Amino acid sequence: MLGKDARVSEMLRMPLSRRPGTTGRLRGGVVVFCDPHSYPRNVDRIVDVPGFIPAVGIHPKQVSTWTASEMESFKILMRSPKVKALGEVGLDFQARHMEKQEEVLRYILRAYADPAKPVILHLRGPRGNEGVAYSRGMKLAKKCLDKTQPVQLHCFNGGSAAFARWREYFPNVYASFPLTKDQKRGLKGVPAEQSLIEIDAPYLPTVDKNPFRRLLPWQIKISAASLGFLAPKAKL
Ligand SMILES: [Zn+2]
């Protein structure tokens, strides 16, 4: 059984009840640590496979309970040369404390954003109005980030107009999509070269009912095939 601090190499060795029926080689990915309660003490130990890189952030749902010691851990992790991306950070209108969320996002982007490291943004609007988060998030990002900043809009479902507005100001913007019907619709408005594939653990159900009750890196291939980036095949 995989523990909380399972290494990427261990996850890749885990047998699945059903292998992803797709072509394509899994060459790497970004492993996101944005829950301060489970920040790893040593990212190098956990993200131990070439091609995989860690990102560190603070999820907007967690900002109201972010403690001084967790903030200290965040700062220590950000100093690791192995951490090559900042995130998730962002705004979530379905959580509380919007003022605090904005304050923390502003602080983190100003203090830690680096045009050499992508920023992974979680922008979730109130139910039925996703556009609010993308416009408010962009307003804030414009004040804090360089125009050349690579930005990933994670779990993107803002539609083509919102993506075009982001791209106009931040030409290095990307949208990433997990395997859900909503995101499949959103994908239509984003050029393929600015689209990324993701699995969003632990919020989305596993496609494969593996006994570990968590998403494993292999499942990115199932997402990729479902979103049309890989041709589904009977076997690997
Ligand atoms: Zn998120």
TrEMBL record:
It comes from the Eukaryota. Gene3D superfamilies: Metal-dependent hydrolases (3.20.20.140). This is 3'-5' ssDNA/RNA exonuclease TatD. Pfam families: TatD_DNase. Belongs to the metallo-dependent hydrolases superfamily. TatD-type hydrolase family. GO terms for molecular function: exonuclease activity. SUPFAM superfamilies: Metallo-dependent hydrolases. The keyword Nuclease applies. The keyword Hydrolase applies. PANTHER family: DEOXYRIBONUCLEASE TATDN2-RELATED (PTHR46363:SF1). It comes from Elysia marginata. Keywords: Exonuclease, Hydrolase, Nuclease.
